[in-house]
Amino acid sequence: MNSAIPPGSTLVAGLRPEARNAPPSGISEVVDHGRQRPGLIPLWVGEGDLSTPAFITDAAVRSLEAGETFYTWQRGIPELRDALARYHQRLYGRGFSPESFFVTASGMHAVQIAVRLVAGPGDEIVVPTPAWPNFGAAVGVCGAVPVCVPMDYAQGRFTLDLDRLAAAITPRTRAILVNSPSNPTGWTATRAEQEALLALSRRHGIWIVADEIYGRFVYDGSPRASSFHDVMEAQDRVVFVQSFSKNWAMTGWRIGWIEAPAAFGQIIENLIQYSSSGSPVFVQRGAVAALDEGEGFVAEQIARAAEGRRIVFEGLKATNRVTLSAPDGAFYQFFSVDGHADSRALALDLIDRANVGLAPGTAFGAGGESGLRLCFARKSADLVEAVARLQKALAGL
Ligand SMILES: Cc1ncc(COP(=O)(O)O)c(C=O)c1O
């Protein structure tokens, strides 16, 4: 081997550009800066601090003990698809067919498949931003172009600019990716906004990829956020991506689902076959327990998040150094520190000063650069301590 050539560089140059150019997560630099610090309170992640409850883990253990360790249905075990139909019926108040549900190896895998269903090289997918960075990256990796459309921002609140969104649609647009409630902003689409988005989809013949994974986390007393389920007709071009990660504290299990017209069955089965080749049966048994027995746990998580939201919002507001509004949904507080627009530098600095880990807004695309994202799905004591540390640090900036 020629030692003058840096190891691997010519090999890297030979890779497919879409793979080579996939961006690293904008949060990882900050995580790397703080990872080893004793006592750091990590609020940069998109997950709660509870481990999966026993009624779910027990179901998975029973399955493993029963020897359910073989390949299985690509679309998901029938029991899970039935449980998904029942869950949707309870949540949306009408009948659903198990045939419209497809079990995936995470919400991320559901996003990837949904994107691959509708877009490829030369196509565009419109993404309102700030947004979860994996959306744009998933679009880019499959050879399509994510077209970021910044949301409007005033007094700490993001709103959808429907005219700007409509203006971003070109003949190459194949879909709009709508994440409501939103990670990272907490923006939650109103029914009227969903109707307007659907009208755009109908007018242009484009898809809506609806990520409603935080749909249970709303704070106005309603059981769930408004959903495209409430406004769509059966023939509308809507594909839902979903996850077990957040509602049931199952981030490490890697299981989610797609809801799409039953007519897509074989096509989605093929895309699952050629990516994950199905999700483990024991993981799916846990997911059945989550859906059928998990309402008490979901309610507990939402109550906890509501308390976390209150602690964080009130504590940060009291500093008089930040711009923010209490999020309508999801479990993140997005805020900016007045006079400090460089969120990357600020997130690094706050690790040093406060030993609190926050995600920099730069990670979430156009419109979010000056913000910080704080995850409040955590026990109150941690949040009270984190806010106290942030108050002190902000006073010293
Ligand atoms: C908006 C959104 N969609 C999808 C996901 C994917 O979740 P998972 O891959 O853990 O199922 C996440 C995770 O943070 C998310 O925030």
Description:
The protein is an alpha/beta fold. It folds into two domains: 9-51 and 296-395, Alpha-Beta Complex (Aspartate Aminotransferase, domain 1), CATH 3.90.1150; 68-293, Type I PLP-dependent aspartate aminotransferase-like (Major domain) (Aspartate Aminotransferase, domain 2). Helix content is 40%, strand content 16%. It contains 14 helices and 15 strands. The strands form four sheets. The chain has a seven-stranded mixed beta sheet, with helices on both faces. A four-stranded antiparallel beta sheet has the order 11-12-15-14. It has a two-stranded parallel sheet with strand order 1-13. A hairpin with a 2-residue loop joins strand 5 (152-154) and strand 6 (157-159). The longest helix has 23 residues, at 295-317. The chain starts with 8 loop residues before the first helix and ends with a helix. The model has no long low-confidence stretch (mean pLDDT 96). Pyridoxal-5'-phosphate binds at residues 46, 106-108, 111, 132, 179, 183, 211, 213, 243, 245, 251, 256.
